[in-house]
């Protein structure tokens, strides 16, 4: 196909006419489709239906620790749940606390705790004149929302093909004492699906922060969310690397079963050094008597061990893979060579990251919405919702059915073309 | 029986001899009993066993709102769970948010949120020179632990027979702008089992706080935890009273099913005015995507409605009542007339509050511990763990079996007598 930029004004106008006709027809269909959030589809939720039966009225309700899971007790999670979460992350159970149904809540609480009480005895961040976080971009909107709420200054760090720009990360972290954190989704990053290379992980682990209370917020949300059994990304386990540098206290790692079992009823975990976990427990013991151990037991008995989790994830992949491929294939068929867009084909995670020409993302999202297809708001993948190039769109193909996805993708492509033609006509 | 204070030194010494012999025998038994925390007994947890079956692999998993409870969505709780929690408290569903398994966590978060972000637009409490909370005493140690952690100055407010000393409460709240809150357990108070009278509730509702961000933390933990079906305490619903005074924003009310279903796996709720709930949701939407809706549905379907909850609570009462009575009867038999102790016979809740002679509580608890019976630490019922009279002991009779309770109570009484005799001998 010929690149749009090589077309004459008349050729562009002719294409525009054609596209507008198609758009009118599409809009008339009254679509109501949602590709905005990384929600599992009903079919995926059904994969864990049997989990609802494993803890029942005739179950032995004592966990390995000997405690009745129905009663109070065990602040940091039951042993069998800890073990599974630890194995998912490749760390020791001793370095894990199991929480409730949302790792987002753990992350929020870690920032909140640092604000109020400091980190391992440091000055509470709320008492400092300035607190900064590094934000690899494009990134996860809910991370940025947390730091924005706490009035943390967010600094964009461009993502490269193998992770954040580490030269920049090192420059900031090693020299600026007000830089207290960085948000990372190190495997199948949200939204690009990029897995940090070994070199990037090693450079993270070797950071020499100017601030001793600097923490890497390592949100390993997609640790086991591979699409291709025979072509998985492998993420280097960061704590082992940190230990080599005496840097074990520098990382908070997060994960959950939100996209393993139930998005609204899973369990989550924090992994960290013993010193950090002790620091967390000091206030956590006042915040709560402990999280829902019945649900922890339900998860542990359902999976038995981490191999049970791995087997389960293959079933998710079987549902998600065709959806991702349908979108990508359509992009390749319809957009390749037009010079108006690029995208990453991810090997896991929940998103496809799409780049329009500069200045087109907001318009594409608006046009899709007008015709009944909801996308993540343009700009959402950047701090303060400000995408400096107005070019990144996050596509979440998991929730719609395959038929819905086909319709939504067609409309999306149509809108990309239409907005791009308009953009080119501005200067043609 | 003759009061100990009327005995001669020789008579006291003779009693002491006898008691020490008994104590030695008791200590030799190697007891290992726990009356320290308000934990439900296994039999009580078993009452809700069938709840584990109501949401199973063949269930319809959509809630009334039409949302699949397994997926993300619904920040403030599913409608059917809201309704039950609202009915327990006698408020409207619109005034309720359902949270996770622990109301303590809601309370902590409400204080934390006020510290960081203020209340309805007020200055964040952490930015103020001084924040004070009123603490009716004796009271609940975990309340005091929260405000202590946040460096809030706690002021003791003596409990009277029908609630906190309201003259004092009014004096502080209506005149001191740094008084931002008061901890209340208004029904079957922890530890005394006192229910606030209508007059006390009306006076609370009619407060004219000097601080517009003053809030009553109304922890209605024992709202439906009556021991006697035909002799229940009735607590006036506070929001209705507040509305009469245009004071609806002044109260945060808390409750949970921790002592209804599972202490470690129930659901909890916050009730508040629309303005307050909107304020909470503004930050809550960044803190979490929502709490475990599967467990909310499990609770809602198990109970069907609030009448199901009431029926269920009768079964708890049937288990708890004999335990409370066994302790109280033993006290009456062994301690009445000795002039060395007093206690409250509660009609509900989880505790028996016991008063030794001044200066004896710590020694009694230590002596019990030495012989294998763990009680709540003396002083725990006061802010900073400082009971000014060293006289209050909280007894939690729910967890031990009836046989264990008998042994523990006998030992406790023995220790009370022994420590009292020692005390009297100091001056005799």
Mean pLDDT figure of chain A: 97
Number of helices of chain A: 14
Oligomeric form: homodimer
Give the overall shape of chain A.
globular
| Residues in β-strands, percent of chain A | 5-15%
Compressed to H and E, one letter per element, the order of chain A equals HEHHHEHEHEEHEHEHEEHHHEEHEEH
- Low-confidence runs of chain A: none
Structure report:
The structure is a homodimer of 428-residue chains. With 428 residues, the first copy, chain A, is α/β, with parallel strands linked by helices. Helix content of chain A is 42%, strand content 14%. The first copy, chain A, contains 14 helices and 13 strands. Chain A has helices at residues 9-28, 42-46, 51-54, 79-89, 103-117, 141-149, 166-175, 198-205, 238-244, 274-287, 293-303, 306-335, 361-370, 402-427, and strands at 33-35, 96-99, 132-137, 153-160, 163-164, 179-184, 215-219, 251-256, 268-271, 341-343, 352-356, 373-375, 392-395. An eight-stranded mixed beta sheet of chain A has the order 2-9-8-7-6-3-4-5, sandwiched between helices. In chain A, strands 10-11-13 form a three-stranded antiparallel beta sheet, covered by helices on one side. In chain A, strands 1-12 form a two-stranded parallel sheet. In chain A, helix 8 crosses helix 9 (238-244) and helix 12 packs across helix 14. The longest helix of chain A has 30 residues, at 306-335. The two termini of chain A are 19 Å apart. The model of chain A has no long low-confidence stretch (mean pLDDT 97). The interface between A and B is large, with 55 and 54 residues.
